[in-house]
Amino acid sequence: MVRCKLADCPVARDGRCLEGRGDACPNLIDSESSAASEQSRNVSPSKSKTAAKRAIERLYSGLPLEVAEAREFSQATRTVVTAFVGIRESGKTSLLARLHQMFQLGPIGNFGFSGSRTLPRFEELNWLATLESGVAVPLMERSSQQFDNSFLHFCVRSIGSSGVPINLLLNDISGETFGDAVANQSVCDRLLGLARCDHLVLLLDGAALTEPAMRHDHEAKGRNFLQRILQSGQIGPTTALHLVISKMDVVKGSADAAGSLAAATDLEKRLEAEFADRVASLRLWRVAARPRDGSLPTVKEIADLFSSWLNATYRYPATVIDSPKLGRDARDFLRFGIGF
Amino acid sequence: MDEERFQVLIIGLPESGKTSFIQALDEVLQNPSSSDALSASGLAYDRAYLEKDKAKFRAGQKLDRTERNVQWHPPELWFRHPPTGKTGRVFLPDVSGEMYRDQWVDRAWSTKYRDQLLSINGLLVFVRADLPASNTELLGQLVEIVQGDGDLRPWDTQKASAQVQLTDVLQFVAGAQSIKRPLRTAVLISAWDTVEKVRNALPQEPPKFLEREWPMLSQYLCNNPDTFTTNVYGVSALGGTEAELKELCKIPPHERVKIVENGHSSRDLSRPLRWLLALN
To answer: Which of B20, B27, B48, B191 could connect to B237 by a Cys-Cys bridge, CB 3.0–4.6 Å?
Structure first.
């Protein structure tokens, strides 16, 4: 007979769960098994958890996908991996959260929403920018280092075509890790998504560019990070690099807007000159994903950026896929020397 | 004549109009509005669940929220399809909307529910026309206007946007190995009477309304044609708001209802069922 961990629950008396969850309630205890296990501590673990477990089936967690879960997609269907890097509070998470908000309003560019395994995490990222949370100004949760090797997920389909669905895996590397990676190659080496990414998005904090004293360090860190991962081979001729200047609302609203915009342009030119011929492609973007000045997000630019991830990948020329040396199992993550 | 038995799964978050629709459908079957409409071929043996709220529904009163873990026999409607003479029984378990919210929050479902998916002939998915599909983002002018109430509420999974929760619940169904594919899915936009109010600028065609007001859900269903074949209806099962029902209750319940589909408006609430069961 079942009973409940909650003292007030009448389930033991009349079978009705206090919370109305029936057999699926996680508080259920099989009292006969519990009593037996209390009598003898040498008895094997209580059957109560087993009885409750039999009635319940766990579904996917909704948290960012671990590498093994991500592999399931990349081995089964067309998958694009995009990694996001940048110093703390440069706007990585705001950009990702904006994509989720945009899908709640309709397709992004020419791509319609076809599913996501990480909807709860997307909702959590957006919570502190909603009226319902009680905030006065939109806030954003900082990326957590625990998700450095995890992936948010969208599945999309090109509108108006009978094309196959495309899985997009988004790797949000925390700003703390970015800083550590600049300082230490071994930190870079642990970032598994970089070696697999089709697209690398380096966010450059527009707000930092408005402060002359901060610009140089910000640029240098971005440059050093790219140098590190090129040096280690984690990115290279098959990687599409996107340099994104974020918080354009702050840039345009700054006291010296003209100077800030000129600084942004100069920064873009220098990085382009240094890295354009070392990667498959280098594109420049300027966005405001979550403006605080009352203006609206730059949804067109963000939609174009999003579409660029799905429209081009340089990673898989046909000869590699057909190569007899690599069996079907050795695709993707294993192919790039990342064993789990 | 052999009767076929059909199982229809009803999905919807709390207060989305599921129970009202079942009650209204029962009334309409007993009082069909046209010769094409399904009509009642008899009364199921056990109608206790329907009858417990029948007086309230007929009087135009608000129904109590469906309890979780209901032990009643699921609503069972016996019907005849006059154009073909076909008869059948359809089972529409009226599951509490909280159950679907629990699936979203707990990321689990009962194996009993999962096993039942094997036998379903179609889905009825309910959304409310007059409730927001998403949480309100602090954006644009709202950033300047809103002061914040000083009471910062931490993230609670239950507070996620409605269309996001509902989309994930459908993803769970889509992930079940056992369902028939593609699964006929009728999306019922309840409280449709609010859309048809004068000066309401919202789209008056249900598919366009869904696309505009529940875009993520609409995209998800359209972009998974291998799993879902979808038709969208606007439905008013009660006929009006609580205030309006004070007057409307003078009219028989089967005459208060309305359903809109493909520009066609009628009182035949059996249309979604006929489509689900391929009885058109």
So the answer is: B20
